């Protein structure tokens, strides 16, 4: 809630606009007030001049304050009405396909962004190939949304719900999915550079063949996710849950898997050259026998102690 001084400042700033838009009206109102004051003075001739000026100024100030407050209320009412109209249009246009429909929906989303307003449910909305660069969709409900080939470069989807959404072929450069829900989401053929998936839920997500550069999966839930053939060079998986994930043939060179859970993950043909796997949880030699390692790969201590090569020697 705004403090009293802030309200006063806003009122002072509004006064020139109010008078500028309605100069005749406020001039007439001022004359009426002055006339009333002088009529009263005829019956109270004993009043001093300073009392007269004080009374006139008080009346004028009351009128100005009332006009400003009325203007602020009207501005708030119009803003609320515009937001309601945009929400209704988005809800009506959810399944509208074609170039015109995409442009209309993308335009409404940007206008709501400019107003710093939230969104209605965007469940199953069709936005394929839309240009949504830099948009703020924090907390939006995009359940089962069609986002194929959409441009979300630099977009903020923190905490958004994208369960069962289709983002195949989307541009996700520098997009923020921190804490977002992307369970069962199709992310195949997407492009990534410094994309943030930290703390996100990507259970059973489809990520086959994707090229991730500098991506952050720190603390993410990737249980059962499919990374087969994916490029994950220098990715951050620290503290992530990769239990049951398919990393077959994935390139994880130089990646950070400190504290990650790799219970029953498929590591067949995965390249961990130079990877940091210290304190990785539930990793076994049976899994690593199928993976690619080098002398720069840092393994957890419990595996070093049970190295089958050392034991056989």
Keywords:
313 residues; mainly alpha; 7 helices; elongated
**What sort of overall outline do the alpha carbons produce when their principal axes are compared?**
elongated
Report the helical percentage.
25-40%
Q: Give the termini separation.
A: 73 Å
pLDDT averaged over residues: 85
Helix/strand/pairing class, anyone?
mainly alpha
Number of helices: 7
Largest pleated sheet: none
Q: What is the number of E strands? A: 0
Uncertain stretches: none
Query: H/E series, N to C?
Result: HHHHHHH
For the CA atoms, what is the radius of gyration?
32 Å
Instruction: Name the beta content range.
Output: under 5%
Describe the structure in your own words.
The chain is mostly helical. It has a domain at 4-81. Helix content is 36%, strand content 0%. The chain has helices at residues 4-21, 23-42, 49-93, 99-114, 285-288, 301-305, 308-312. The protein is elongated, with a radius of gyration of 32 Å. The termini are far apart.
């Amino acid at each position: 809630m705004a403090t009293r001084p802030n309200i006063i400042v806003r009122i002072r700033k509004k006064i020139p606009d109010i008078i500028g838009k309605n100069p005749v009206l406020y001039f007439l109102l001022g004359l009426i007030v002055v006339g009333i004051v002088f009529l009263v003075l005829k019956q109270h001739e004993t009043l001093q001049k300073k009392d007269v000026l004080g009374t006139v100024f008080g009346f004028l100030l009351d009128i100005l304050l009332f006009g400003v407050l009325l203007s602020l209320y009207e501005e708030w009412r119009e803003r609320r009405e515009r937001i309601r109209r945009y929400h209704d249009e988005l809800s009506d246009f959810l399944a509208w396909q074609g170039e015109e429909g995409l442009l209309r929906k993308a335009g409404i989303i940007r206008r709501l962004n400019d107003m710093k307003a939230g969104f209605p449910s965007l469940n199953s909305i069709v936005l394929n190939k839309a240009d949504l660069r830099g948009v703020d969709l924090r907390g939006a409900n995009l359940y089962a949304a069609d986002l194929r080939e959409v441009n979300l470069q630099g977009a903020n989807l923190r905490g958004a719900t994208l369960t069962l959404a289709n983002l195949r072929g989307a541009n996700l450069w520098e997009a923020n999915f921190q804490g977002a829900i992307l369970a069962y989401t199709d992310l195949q053929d997407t492009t990534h550079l410094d994309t943030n998936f930290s703390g996100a839920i990507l259970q059973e997500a489809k990520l086959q063949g994707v090229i991730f550069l500098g991506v952050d999966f720190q603390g993410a839930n990737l249980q059962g996710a499919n990374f087969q053939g994916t490029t994950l060079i220098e990715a951050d998986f620290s503290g992530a849950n990769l239990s049951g994930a398919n990393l077959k043939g994935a390139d994880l060179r130089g990646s950070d898997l400190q504290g990650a859970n790799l219970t029953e993950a498929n590591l067949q043909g995965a390249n961990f050259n130079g990877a940091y796997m210290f304190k990785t949880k539930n990793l076994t030699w049976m899994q690593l026998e199928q993976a690619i390692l080098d002398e720069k790969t840092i393994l957890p201590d419990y595996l070093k102690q049970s190295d089958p090569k050392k034991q056989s020697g």
